[in-house]
């Protein structure tokens, strides 16, 4: 037990837990990561947009500031992990019906007020930039600088990075987290600090998180362009389809991630027939040649929603930190979250 | 090499190859089955309807007779392999639009002429029998006696039965088949008789099959009723949806197999976005509560189409038999095919 009080136990092996463990281990801490199946949850299912700007909305300026701070840190964060993780071709946002066009106008005006670069595109200009956009799409915005990350390559790189830095993995489910210890089914992991980074499962692990974090289900599809298919977009394409948000995120090799529904249905991660049918129908209204693509995977993940749509990154009690509640922004906020946890642990 | 000339080599580990190998081994023959991945092709993807009657159509009486002969042999065949493989609750055939209703009338008249039991059901009577049928479905037929087989349990039982009877498995791809030998990449399997049962891949294995057998792609979905979902039908439900054929085949435990598209696209087994979207849309028009089901699997298989829609079960040359070209009827015709191959080998 000598030295167990110096150990940091990270509970959760999604992008937040892995980033925190990797950063802590890089600063010389002894780290143990506890998760029955690291790199398999919502971060594995995700689309990987690092898009604070195009997710901006009046009234959510604080969230935007945090996102912008994190996106600034992303290139260095990714560089340290390996090459080819980021796609920096920017984002198009497109509107399918007249009401959707109205929403884009509001967004463009808001982004202008914030001093962000944004270009309004007519239907014709849109198709000059991305010829696969449907002829029925009405208007769009081009937002240069938005990044996307290949979430699966990132998770592999983080796992590998953790291993190289000596992080120890305990592949077991966690029952509860308290000061100085992480309780498993049959044993206990002793530690000086425990970090709860268990995403949608965090609420059940510490009383201070009960009611603060809840599961928000998202369904996603992975498609692949086939020989003879029109190719996928080069940029991330976000769309409003009769007010329903949709995104198409290209990956190297002709793969395209399509998301995402949002349902508040508790711990249910079934992929439903209606969810898949709706996603496919909306996606084909934006990018008609998808009909010919191969459907490679359909999956659902549970994001960690919080009461104010912002993450909880703070002490819950002496010796227990939380880094959870990142909702749709776990990948985006991973660098800033890991840095903040590092500061909190150091200032203890 | 002593005794190699007495050995039968079965090329292909789908339902036909496995049934042939199992039967031959049961009659005392020494059998080797060659397939890189037995029980993984079109038979694994299939719906499992054993439905010669509801597939009947004027002009295809010879096919019907063969199907009826095989379906008669199915209960004993299944009994020998294990219990719970067959579902004998019968079939409903339903029509979605007025033209589909007209087609059902033709089918009912044809079946009547053949002396088959068939009951016409109004929309209301249909829903008394299967309450989940859509309110917009116009009419239907009830065909008692049609069987369905759980294809995946069947394939497992055949694999196990082959093992118990001493069939040897060579898990390698086959390059060609000739009298006395099956050529692999780096070696040869010697035999007295070779049986080509390689489904859609048969055409490339022996010159006499070139042009006789071709791949016909079929896409299938596996759904699962969720807690709170309306349950799946108890019977197999076949439907015509604006002339497109569709089937819903229930499995134990709330699973439902939905098929099947048919495409003539060569050796392409991608599941396409449009294929899945079309199947889901048609299926929901017949059984609306499917929207709430979980989408468990989407897959495509390549059936072995033949030029006259009937299987090729005969000598290609001395020492080389074919048992292929079963198209949509591989599962249905497995017992009669295995028996016929047994006779051909015995009478040699």
From TrEMBL, chains A, B:
A Pfam family recorded for this sequence: DAO
All residue ranges annotated as the FAD dependent oxidoreductase domain in the record: 8-342
InterPro entries: FAD-dep_OxRdtase (IPR006076), FAD/NAD-bd_sf (IPR036188), Gly_oxidase_ThiO (IPR012727)
GO cellular component: a single term: cytoplasm
EC number from the UniProt entry: 1.4.3.19
EC main group: oxidoreductase
Recorded catalytic activity of this chain's protein: glycine + O2 + H2O = glyoxylate + H2O2 + NH4(+)
Protein name in UniProt: glycine oxidase
Organism: Labedaea rhizosphaerae
